[in-house]
Amino acid sequence: MNEPLHRALGLTDDEAESITKILGRAPNPLELSMYSVMWSEHCSYKSSRIHLKRLPTEGEHVLVGPGENAGVIDMGDGIAAAIRIESHNHPSAIEPYQGAATGAGGILRDIFTMGARPIALMDPLRFGPLEDPRSRWIAEGVVNGISGYGNSVGVPTVGGETVFDETYTGNPLVNVLCLGIMPTERLVLGQATGVGNLAVLLGSRTGRDGIGGVSVLASAGFSDDEADAAKRPNVQVGDPFEEKRLIEACLKLLDEGLAVGIQDLGGAGLCCATSETASRGGVGMDVDITTIPLREEGMEPFEIMTSESQERMLAIVEPGNLDRVMEICEKWEVLASVIGTVTDNAGALRILDGPGDDAIVLADVPASSLHDEAPLYERPLAEPADLADRRQRSANDLPAPESIADDLAAMLIDPSWVYSQYDHQLFLNTVAGPGSDATVLRLKDPATGADTGRGMGLTTDGNHRWCAVDPKRGTANTVAESVLNLACVGARPLALVNCLNFGNPEHPEVMWQLSEAIDGMTEACLAFDLPVVGGNVSLYNESKGTNIDPTPVVGVLGMVDDLQSPPPGKRWNDGDRIVLLGDPDATELSGSTWAFRQGHKQGSLPAIDYDAHAAVAGLTRDLVNDPGFITGVHDISSGGLGVCLAEMAIASGVGCTVARVGSHALLFSEAPSRVVVAVSADNLPTLEERAAAAGVPVTRLGLAHKDQFAVKGLVEVPLATLASASADRLPNALGGGTTQG
Amino acid sequence: MTFSVLVEVQLRPGISDPQGQTIERALPNLGYEGVSEVRVGKSMRFAVDAADEAAARAQVDELCQKVLTNPVIEDAIITVEPT
Amino acid sequence: MTKVGVVVFPGTNCEADVIESVRALGGEAEMVWHGDASLPAVDAVVIPGGFAHGDYLRPGAIAQFSAIMGAVKEFADKGGPVVGICNGFQVLTETGLLPGALQKNAGLKFLCQPAELRVATTNSALTSAAEVGQTLHIPINHFEGNFTCSPDTLAQLHDEDRVVVTYVDNPNGSMGDIAGVCNQGRNVVGLMPHPERASNALLGSEDGNVMFTSLLQSALTNA
């Protein structure tokens, strides 16, 4: 293997040349390895940054936007919320349990590093089909990992999504969102200031975990003997108990004002944390590599600097506060070591081989160059050559189903097998939990615990089918669905975070999908006045040369202004009237779950009318926030009106008779901006008046009653049949324990 | 002297072992016939300084009674060897 | 005012929830650190749920050796009400203050779900304000909640009316559908379900409040 080291590390020749130009000399191997991790796609967003710039990020409640560890929103009453979403797709494909566990651990650190106590996790999960043994093994491992880590670390998992589709065979998507709250004055940023201040490393010892691309540096000199085998990077292993103690210790430090800045160690480990804090603070930093507590002997400096060992934080502390910091860490049994000093050395990050001025300098690079001077690529993008042709082929031209009841039953999936394994109630906040259109959490004062009488709505949404057919409209409609999900629990949207899961950016069609998706998100966010406060881009989601369908996932935080009672949820009472709010004639099937199940992935997605959507969302919110007026509410999304009605019926244990739905297209279309409401006969006329006043079309669909699920002329099936199809799907596939396929 | 100790903790006979039962039930489906009496436990290895093997064993016995096992449901098999 | 001490081990996570529930009923509550050798002036002690010491080794196994547990035993010996919820129940069985052990759930899955309980006796620090046979909706949240004991112990628990609450639909394989038990003095009670999670209408149930009300009354009687 005689290729130059920089190529083995994944740097291009041009990138290597830029590094030489920055340093004014050739980099040594340690420096090169630091650049290689910091300039990786994962850390630098070099393929996507140019497009991400188009997203709107400003809003009156935004305290901290993209670029920090988490977005921060002003929630009023001196309370701020921190929110972030991230992917852990590739680690979860290799080691599902630890991949998912460390994904949760990483996102928690992003939140408490801002000074916020993490109060909720959400997990949008996507796996290959249930028929595929390996996908089942991955799904079960991921769910166990989230359960094992999240429950133990003491942060409830309050919602998410679970999707099974062949596009994720071999490349699951494990996204994780975390929400935290803090007294606004506790907000801290991940920066180092004050020359002479100390860099204190908190938490676990450093081992050879997940030394990503840099491992080639090690293997370059490897022979095949056993001594070398031991040096290969390890799967990252999460320790939720360590993380729990780290959370308590760090929040105590911040409560007492003992840290001028704090930064978690995630991707690229110490290299990223030291350079990021120094560069944000506009200072230099000297790190003594010999002071870092190690888990293994004989670790090389590049391994120490780039290790991704979990459960570590870097705090910047004034020397006078060090004793108190150590005292707190001792109480919580958290290891703490001074590993460096803030310097005025012209922004230089220096890695030293020992203490004092005469120590050997192992690396000396401008801290900011690792971030700000990372390459920025405008990769070629191209729409698919046959796009125009594809868009002509509507799924409405497919033959009508032989049995609508069977097709409907096949689309039902009860996710409670997943979420019953997650503690979703800790902190006594969960008013509407997993399984709801959106989660509702009580908003309590983080300093006093006092109830503010308000609530937070939280939802995550993604739809690869819509985005495969049309990434722009698909993404816009995804944002719109989030807004409607929040409306169904009475919340108005405040801010959005995104996790953009796409294929290989070196494929022009994938770059086109990404660009289109960002355009669609921009359009929808502007229409709903919804700032993007953070995001994550996960590229190279492919397996065996096939890219996944584009899967932008959004998380939206909302506010329930007056939380008096739990939202009505997806249910109805016997005798209720079933009413559709929104377009009663939507029939477009392209991009729908039903069409994909027929193998049809083409056509045009229904466009969204933002004014009409806002009117439906506004009316829905008003109805939900009028306790007792309606019995139930559920938005129409995956599976269309049919699945929406079936889910309401199953949740209530009460059937229905629905008329005025004349075709399978009306039943399964996933056109946006539609909600089903259940209301008593007495309140029906008022509901119709309120809808008319709001300019929202309202259609009487039928009656909730008895134990049959009937849509006249299309379906007539015992409700119990649909209920067991839904309830049994996951336990039958995953319940009995799986093996690694 | 330093002794190397292996403690194998297992559920006491008669205590239901759902992990073992699950593994046993799954094996025939995977084509492994004739495997029975599967019991799942855990093992711990550590080193002990003591005057002699009997003293080491006595110390480990006590450790098992007090900490390493829950005597209500668990037993331990102790192996002590000089290093 | 009646004051409840809520014991916090590293890894405990339900302490704030218990405190919120006690305060909502007019009680006072304060956290007690596991490393302290004595209890502050409290009228009752709750060992809340969570994962003390990460549940490493066994749930409750390491927590039983914390300095505070000596003080808790002493408090219990004097008749002071002591309640262990979930992980706290596991700690109390490991400590020997309560009989039996909590094994992995029969289904080998962590379960966070609603549970329907039946009050089996009102002669305990946690159920004195309830009625025998009363049904309570209180959620469970555990992996190791499968109550196990010897047949002799089980018979003794029944003979002495020490089964405090049972599951209507046994979710975890517990012997005798047992969800909670008490000691012979009836002042030490352990249960797997989380009454604090059923303490507010916004959370879907207020049935847990009868337990905290009982505890505050027992504390008052003892004080």
Structural summary, described in words:
The complex is a heterotrimer of chains A (741), B (83) and C (223). Chain A is an alpha+beta fold and 741 residues long. Helix content of chain A is 35%, strand content 23%. Chain A contains 26 helices and 28 strands. Mean pLDDT of chain A is 93; it is low at 213-232 and 737-741. Chain B has a three-stranded antiparallel beta sheet with strand order 2-1-3, covered by helices on one side. Chain B contains two helices and three strands; from the N terminus they run βαβαβ. Chain B has helices at 18-29, 53-68; strands spanning 2-11, 42-49, 74-82. Chain B starts with a strand and ends with a strand. The mean pLDDT of chain B is 90. By secondary structure, chain B is of the alpha+beta class. The longest helix of chain C is centred in the last third of the chain and has 14 residues, at 209-222. Chain C is built from five helices and 13 strands. With 223 residues, chain C is of the alpha/beta class. Classes of the chains: A alpha+beta (741), B alpha+beta (83), C alpha/beta (223). The interface between A and B is small, with 3 and 4 residues.
Break the fold down into its secondary structure elements and pairings.
The complex is a heterotrimer of chains A (741), B (83) and C (223).
Chain A: H1 5-8, H2 13-23, H3 29-38, H4 41-44, H5 49-52, E1 62-64, E2 71-76, E3 79-87, H6 89-94, H7 96-112, E4 117-127, H8 133-153, E5 157-164, E6 173-183, E7 198-203, H9 215-220, H10 226-229, H11 240-255, E8 261-264, H12 269-281, E9 284-288, H13 301-306, E10 312-317, H14 322-331, E11 336-343, E12 348-352, E13 361-366, H15 387-392, H16 404-410, H17 416-419, E14 430-432, E15 439-444, E16 451-462, H18 464-469, H19 471-487, E17 492-501, H20 508-527, E18 532-538, E19 542-543, E20 546-547, E21 551-560, E22 577-581, H21 593-597, H22 610-624, E23 632-635, H23 640-652, E24 656-658, H24 664-668, E25 675-679, H25 684-694, E26 698-704, E27 708-711, E28 715-718, H26 719-734
Parallel strand pairs in A: 4-5, 9-12, 17-18, 24-27
Antiparallel strand pairs in A: 1-2, 2-3, 3-6, 4-6, 7-10, 7-11, 8-10, 9-11, 12-13, 14-15, 15-16, 16-21, 17-21, 19-20, 22-25, 22-26, 23-25, 24-26, 27-28
Helix pairs in contact in A: 7-8, 7-11, 8-11, 11-14, 19-20, 19-22, 22-25
Chain B: E1 2-11, H1 18-29, E2 42-49, H2 53-68, E3 74-82
Antiparallel strand pairs in B: 1-2, 1-3
Chain C: E1 3-8, H1 15-24, E2 28-33, E3 44-47, H2 67-77, E4 82-85, H3 87-95, E5 101-103, E6 111-113, E7 116-119, E8 135-137, E9 140-142, E10 146-148, H4 151-159, E11 163-167, E12 178-182, E13 188-191, H5 209-222
Parallel strand pairs in C: 1-2, 1-3, 3-4, 4-13
Antiparallel strand pairs in C: 5-10, 6-9, 7-8, 7-11, 11-12, 12-13
